[in-house]
Amino acid sequence: MSLWRLEWLRMVRTKRWLAIFVVFVFFGIIGPLSARYMGEIIEQFGGGIEITLPEPTPADGIMQYSGNVAQLGLLVLIMIAAGALTIESRYEMAVFLRTRVRSPYRLLLPRYTVVAGAGVGAFIAGTLLAWYETAILIGAPDATSMLMGMVFFSVYLLFAIALVAFAGSALKNVLPTVIVTLVVLLLMPLVGILPNVGDWLPSHLVGSLDGLVRGAAAGDFARAVIVTSAGTLALLYGTMRMLERGEL
């Protein structure tokens, strides 16, 4: 059995792909609904308090979705990615693989590709659903902005998964890998507060889908896309080097 088929079966038979898709699709359904009926929800549970909200816009429906997937959706994806990409977390399995597969490239690439494919696929599925519901309930967002936002956020997801792989290679334990990855991703927006820094960081892409729908130019995210893509490749290269040099 090839390593590619092994990783595919690991993702499918353990239902990990389903956990990822359920989260993204759930927010794809809930996001536009909450934006459209927020006023009614507040009135229902507000104890008789009357609150007047502005009419929702298509950007509001997309914002509700993108905000949720950038938090809870990303968290679930990182947890599942850590289980797959912390290659040496189980000593017996690490020995079995390392004594039979000499190239770290062959160890890393199938795992990274399968997890990244599931994560990006789930995000695209959830976004398409949110796009459809927003168009039906509120109004159609700009198609070009939606497509560009999907591409930019997918680039960020690929970076986040590569960061998991790098942390997993260094720490060799799933829980610390999850924690370190989340800390790094959470610290990036804080670093982005510095003048002339935020537009270059991967964290700038988190708001790309919402920003583009609200009228931001695609060029506003170009620098972040370049840095994030380069960072993804650097992290994967660093991961392979650590796997190559590591001792069991």
Polypeptide structure, described:
With 248 residues, the chain is mainly α. Helix 4 packs parallel to helix 7. It starts with a helix and ends with a helix. The model has no long low-confidence stretch (mean pLDDT 87).
User: How is the biggest beta sheet arranged?
Assistant: none
Q: Which term fits the overall shape? A: globular
Radius of gyration, whole Å: 20 Å
Mean pLDDT across the residues is: 87
Give the helices and strands as they follow along the chain.
HHHHHHHHHH
Q: What's the β-strand tally?
A: 0
Spans with pLDDT under 50 lasting ≥5 residues? none
In DSSP terms (H or I, runs of 4 or more residues), the helix count works out at: 10
Amount of beta strand: under 5%
**What is the CA–CA distance across the termini?**
24 Å
Which structural class matches the secondary elements?
mainly alpha
Annotation keywords:
about 250 residues; mainly alpha; globular
Question: How is the topology of this model organized?
Answer:
Layout: H1 3-13, H2 16-36, H3 38-45, H4 58-85, H5 91-98, H6 104-137, H7 143-171, H8 174-191, H9 208-213, H10 222-245
Describe this structure in a few short sentences.
The chain is mainly alpha-helical.
